[in-house]
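LexA-binding, inner membrane-associated hydrolase: structure, please.
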Amino acid sequence: MDILAHGLWVGLGAAAWHRHRPLDRRTVGLAVGLAVLPDLVQLAPLVALTLSSSEGWRVLLAYANALPGYEPPMSPLLAGLTHHLHCVMHSALVAGAVTGVLWLWLGSFWLPLLGWWSHVLIDVFTHSADFYPSPVFYPVTYWGFDGVAWNNTWFMVMNYLAMVIVFALIFRRK
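Here you go.
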């Protein structure tokens, strides 16, 4: 799923939750931030290239708008770095380890982590095997479920239409 949609879905989830149990703005902001963080971390090397090279902006735009099989050519170092950052940030094992450490440290589940967990769960089903499948069990395996490619036009339209419907349901007048 695209970065914006991850943040919007978590925001909608927080709004729905808030109707039943109040959430403070800091918790919501952190959850939305953690919902977009996995993709931002993956893009960090490309952003660094953008800031340091005249070709960087072109590569970043081509990467962000690529369809499966049409990713822009990148140096082996850059391709490997973005790939491994993607694997780390989309792994349920890594997210589980971070959750466990924080749970032990804080003595309870840290609610903003639901943003990261939602990202991992959604991406398992919205990434095809041809285009950055989410390696849920990384670093044990690179296996990823062959889901629907999130950047297919029909999927993007359906996804944002679903958000509009959920928004209307959450914020409808009684």
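Notes: The chain has one domain: 3-170.
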